[in-house]
Amino acid sequence: MMYRPYWLPGTVVSIIFFLAGNLLNLSISYMGNSNSDISSVMIKLFWPTILGQIVKVFVITVLTGIFFNIIYRLAFDFIQVKTGRKFSGRWVAGVIVYSFLMFFLATVINIPQLFMDNFFSKSVFLNTFLDFITGTFSPSFFYSLFYLVNVSAVLMAAVFVIGKVMELSQIRAFLENRRIAGYIPTRRRAAFFVLLISIAGLLIAVIPSKKHIAGKNILIISSDSVRPDRISYNGYSRKTTPNLDKYMKEALQIRGVMTAVPRTFPAWVSLLTSSTPLRHDIGHMFPRTRERSVKLDSAVSYLRNKGYYTSVVSEFAGDIFPRVDLGYENVVAPEMNFKVIIKQVILERQVFLLPFILNRAGRALFPEVRDIAKFSDPSMLTSECMGEIEKSGDRPFFISVFYSITHFPFSGNYPYYKKFSDPDYNGPYKYLKQIVVKLGKGDDSGKKERTSEDPKKKEADEAQVNALYDGCLYELDVEIGRIVEYLKKNGLYENTTIIVTSDHGENLYDEKNYGIGHGEHLRGNYAMEIPFIMLGGYVKDGHRGVTINKTGSITDILPTVFNYTGLGIPGFFRGRDLFYPSVNRVDAYVETGIWFDNNKSSELFFYHERIDYPDISGLLEIDFDYMNEGVVKQEYQNVIKTAKHRAIYSGRYKLIYVPLSSGVRFELYDFVKDPGNRTDLSSRKPDVLGRMKKLFYDYVTEESLGNYKRVGDYILPFYSDSVF
Predict the structure, then answer these.
(1) Domain carrying residue 257
(2) What average pLDDT does range 116-126 have in this prediction?
């Protein structure tokens, strides 16, 4: 062979890129949080996984370099044949470096969040360069430079290879054989034949297939942390949801629906089982095997038994779905366990390989790509949702698509991360907002929020975080538009009920001391209220464009939809049809999740008004018998349940139960007049307080089937199962 070794330039370049990516940073962290003690334990326990992932990454990186090497070498061989000029391996290496850098820069502009901590934050120069390219160029600029070279290289390589093949004497003899020459089409006929095939293929791809599925389809479109008051149709100042605004003219909306727990796992279980954690017993993100293994009656299994195709597709926010059997026939979602976290951490450091694996092929090679919190790909999720609809065939479907784009760190893609941002903002949250928890011993995660102490800068930081969130909501709205238009074009809209909702809302610095996030406290409705919008052919004419204000629960969504569309309400549903009146009862019940950290230095009130237990680093253990997941240690099961804040809504009043080591405190709010819950009425309205307390204790006892008991004013779990 003329150039030996043929593969060397690509191998050398890819190894250099591999070493650069790994030497920049290699630590065990998740969503910006790290702990040196935990990292040491992870290395000791999972060193084979770490070694295996590093080897896999190295091999794929080298193979990527060799692939480009082959293309460019063949292209240069083609040029040499045409011009007579020889090109050394340095030319190949140079073009490989060029291609890697062009694709890298394009991806950086598209998703700067993914590369900030592992690359650009390493120096002031790199950080300044990042601000320059994201503020000056679009991804298409560098993608164009990449494809300009690579499409040309591929064409030249293909022509060179075809020419070499055609020179083979056996093929030439075959083509010149008079006995079969009559069966070989002329070039003109061959070109015409190829053209016909191409046109047919385009027609098949472009012309929509009209699918008329017998039965009443249900499609749940949900995204993490969506607040209904941020939907521009509902009066928000920014135009965050232009597609949804348009569809709302033919939709039915119910405002005032509350989640059961402002955490993803218990919220989804509550939605699909139409029951609260008091009954299904999944009250936080890290349930043990016992809670996950209990057979749950759900709307999914109910419809699946009636012949429905049931499926769920999601990204990192939906890693709860593989952890519990809710009845889905097909689950397209990432796993969440310590092995996956370790693989993900190693993969995130490969800054020069990442751009080439953020696609379907990359997800096949590295499934953990789907679980990277800094990278949400709602467009791909929409395509997967459409694929699941196609899989349903002639069966009615119950499909859930759960987006992660509106979950912190609010990591929107280009151009959405700058859609509503102040172009002059240059603080720590320019591209994303990390939530950094204050861990105990061994904490090296940054100790506290990076928000400036300067009031003006702090205000700018908070405004930027809100702009990022709104940009992500806009990006979600684009995908909602794609799905609705897909259903309409394929004749599915009229026999499908589309539910637009969320698992919970989000605190976004709305009130003083309320902070950002969800699940830590129950004041205000910012983290509690969720959208409940019904679209599709089953919305009655009298309800199109209508918004009903009525307090309800996430457990009421499916009973309302089932009854509304004529499916009937299964006997195991605990929720109610929201079209029926509520008299002297609890309209909604909410409880907190677990406390992730114990930041007593924080000014936020909720760190100082609760029963404490260890932070997340001391609270969890690894369940080696079940997928290496993190689960709450058994000895903390009861204290977590005891420490939960709980709330009920009834009429216009909201009661919050706050257990403390010194006793139980009750807060009473008129949430109609005081939606932010700033004025506690417990001392001013003793009669209302007494009535609400009785409702609260009766509801908890009834819904928990007696598994919670009142002891004094405390609500305590009735049992402790030491076996599980």
Answers:
(1) 217-315+376-710
(2) 81
342 inside domain: no
Q: What 3-state class would DSSP assign to 254?
A: strand
On whether the CB atoms of residues 477 and 378 are closer than 8 A, the answer is: no
Cα angle vertex 453, ends 452, 459, to 5°? 65
189 within domain boundaries: no
Paired strand residues for 623: 629
pTM: 0.90
Three-class SS of residue 282? coil
**Full DSSP string of 607-669:** GGSS-----HHHHEEEETTTTTEEEE-GGGHHHHHHH--EEEEETTEEEEEEEETTEEEEEEE
Question: What angle, rounded to 10 degrees, do the helices at 8-24 and 47-83 form?
Answer: 140
Q: Give the tens place of pLDDT for each residue, 586-625.
A: 999 999 999 998 889 999 999 999 999 999 888 988 888 7
Tokens 């150039």 belong to which residue?
3
Domain contains 488: yes
- The pairing of beta strand 252-258 with beta strand 546-553: parallel
The number of distinct structural domains making up the chain is: 1
- Per residue in 367-417, pLDDT (tens digit) is 999 999 899 999 999 999 999 999 999 999 999 999 999 999 999 999 999
For residue 262, the domain's CATH number is 3.40.720.10
Mean pLDDT within 84-112: 93
What is the predicted pLDDT for the residue at 183?
46
d(CA 232, CA 632): 39
Which residues fall within 8 angstroms of residue 633, CB to CB, at 6 or more apart? 619, 620, 621
